[in-house]
Amino acid sequence: MTDEAGQARDYRLDPINRDDDYNLMALINQTSHAFTLARTRELSQHGLSMMRAAVLLVLQARDNNATPTEISEWLLREPHTISALLDRMEKDGLVRRYRDMHKRNTVRVAMTEKGRVAYQASLARETFHRVMAVLSPEDREQLRSVMTKLWLRALQEVKREVAWASAAPSHVESSNE
Fold first, then answer.
1. Would you say the C-alpha torsion 64, 68, 69, 72 has a positive or negative sign?
2. Scanning 28, 78, 102, 129, which has its CA 20 to 30 A from the CA of 35?
3. Distance between CA atoms of 144 and 159, rounded to whole angstroms?
4. Mean of the per-residue pLDDT values for the chain?
5. 6-18: per-residue pLDDT in tens?
6. How many domains does the chain have?
């Protein structure tokens, strides 16, 4: 929000202690939550949740052929969480699981035709475009740089507790390459 002069307001969720690190992280969290609510509303028109759309995106990026472990690493989720999600998606006809022909002990996941239609519907991202329109190209690059630094540092903090944290950045496109 901005005031009458067009200046951005300074929102602080802990105005008593003035803990700047907490206030910045709370602002990031609140922003993420607002994005999530808006995106959830947008996707619900197509019978999707954000996680279901994310799984379909991973399958598309992996040439419609990924293991549950690869999906969990891409989405920064525990394998059992993805397994339960895949159970529901398979029941709803969005994906199918099958045995790898070359590695019989490996399970692979692919989108069904219904999943492909849902993936195409998920590409309508008007919510993101409307919100991000307030940023100039310079703002976007600065935000990307700052958020990448925070993301990589946060992954370092949790890499001993969660298996996916070490592999998380491996699939992200880097502009330094």
1. positive
2. 78
3. 22
4. 87
5. 556 666 667 777 7
6. 2
Domain range for 152 is: 135-170
pLDDT tens-digit series, residues 15-73 = 777 788 888 898 899 999 999 999 999 999 999 999 999 999 999 999 999 999 999 98
Q: Whose structure tokens read 């059992």? A: 80
Q: Which two tokens stand for residue 46?
A: 């197509």
Task: Say if pTM beats, i.e. exceeds, 0.85.
Answer: no
Same-domain check for residues 111 and 30: yes
Q: How far from 147 is each of 26, 139, 143, 152, CA to CA, in Å?
A: 14, 12, 6, 9
SS3 at position 98: strand
Does a structural domain hold residue 143? yes
- Give the single-character DSSP code of 168: G
